[in-house]
Amino acid sequence: MQNTHLSALSAKHNVLDQRIHAETQRPLPDRLILAELKKQKLRIKEEMSR
Known about the structure:
Layout: H1 2-25, H2 31-49
């Protein structure tokens, strides 16, 4: 069960990473969106490390 949870968190982390990358590639990246995505990514990373 825990392995499945970790896999799901890892997948979410990867999706957020892709979204952050896509946002930074735009001509005028939205800093608020980037900040929120990075916060979400950090929360997931912290949960994965527990």
